[in-house]
Design goal:
The protein has 323 residues and is of the alpha/beta class. The chain has helices at 3-34, 58-66, 85-95, 115-126, 147-152, 176-186, 209-214, 217-221, 227-237, 258-275, 277-307, 313-318, and strands at 45-50, 73-79, 102-106, 133-137, 160-170, 204-208, 241-253. The relative contact order is 0.15.
């Protein structure tokens, strides 16, 4: 048997076994995190939600953010202009909800940084001066009632610079590409417990206001492209940790097409490569290697079938990623 095929097959099966072991380890770590108990900690919070357009399930998403089991929090919705469809919809939703600690503001157009960052900066300026914690959330997420409470509590530990949840794309039945996106997105979750490679995800993250100001994050945002990657870099450079909170994972319900999926995945990879090159290299090299091994194995299997020749066991092992 070809020794190169044996080597490649061996690498593939070892990688598959390592992936399985990591899955078990991740599950155990997540279960332990769910059991962590924190003393009561409920500082005043400014929850900032940038909005652009009407996302699928928009009204339900917004209501889930408004209906948090948390006593002292204001919520600031921010759009680019009043012409954004989200502005009029938010105005209508807020008019039907008796909640005084809610604001709807517009940030205006910018060409100096990403529009989302510009909106966030404007909302931060409008935040209550008494707020001790800034929380950022996307408008396309659906949260449970204790999401905010769980996200804020670990910040009582002064070693924690920021806390983060994560997005879980819920596959839409009959929409194949939403299933692909869900699987592609969830692979990033395996680094969220790693102090070295984890990051704060901008759709569900929190930071103490004094930490935000001490690390000059607003200034760093002013010419930036990615709000969460810049914040993550600043927090780690400041000597703080980022705490992943599984209870603050959020759901997103929306369909997608292959074209939109390709655009989205390309943007995610570009942002990571720009802001976290070590993480990009950590993920890219093994992915390239094992994609090559799998495709070579697939080619050899097809060749064996078409030529009616024996297919070595090592070739089947090269495709061990599939099961």
């Amino acid at each position: 048997m070809n020794p190169i095929l044996i080597l490649l097959g061996g690498l593939a099966i070892l990688r598959s076994l390592a992936s399985l072991i990591d899955s078990v380890r991740y599950r155990k770590t997540a279960e332990n995190a769910l059991e962590e108990a924190y003393p009561h900690f409920a500082p005043k919070v400014s929850l900032i939600v940038p909005c652009k357009g009407i996302d699928p399930g928009f009204d339900d998403n917004i209501r889930s953010l408004l209906n948090q089991d948390y006593q002292h929090f204001e919520i600031i919705f921010v759009t680019e202009t009043t012409d954004d469809p989200a502005y009029s919809r938010l105005k209508d939703i807020l008019s039907r909800i008796n909640r005084s600690a809610s604001k709807l503001v517009t940030a205006g157009v910018t060409d100096k940084c990403a529009q989302k960052i510009h909106n966030l900066l404007h909302a931060v300026q409008k935040a209550n001066a008494e707020a001790e914690v800034l929380v950022f959330a996307d408008s396309d997420i659906r949260v449970h009632g204790s999401w905010l409470r769980h996200l804020v509590r670990p910040l009582q530990d002064q070693r924690v610079g920021a806390t983060t949840g994560y997005r879980w794309y819920m596959p839409i039945k009959g929409n194949f590409w939403s299933l692909v996106r869900s699987v592609w997105n969830m692979t990033s979750a395996n680094v969220l417990f790693s102090n070295k490679y984890n990051f704060a995800w901008g759709g569900s993250m929190a930071i103490r206001k004094d930490t935000f100001e001490a690390l000059h994050i607003a200034r760093k945002w002013q010419t930036g492209l990615s709000d969460d990657m810049i914040l993550s870099q600043a927090v780690k450079a400041g000597g703080y940790g980022i705490k992943f909170v599984p209870q603050s994972i959020v759901a997103t319900y929306e369909k997608t097409s292959w074209r939109s999926l390709l655009e989205w995945t390309s943007r995610q990879l570009t942002i990571v490569r720009m802001y976290e090159p070590k993480l990009w290299k950590f993920a890219a090299f093994p992915q390239w290697l094992f994609n090559f091994i799998f495709l070579l194995g697939f080619y050899l299997v097809m060749k064996g079938w078409l030529t009616n020749t024996a297919i070595p066991v090592a070739v089947w092992l090269m495709m061990s990623d599939l099961p």
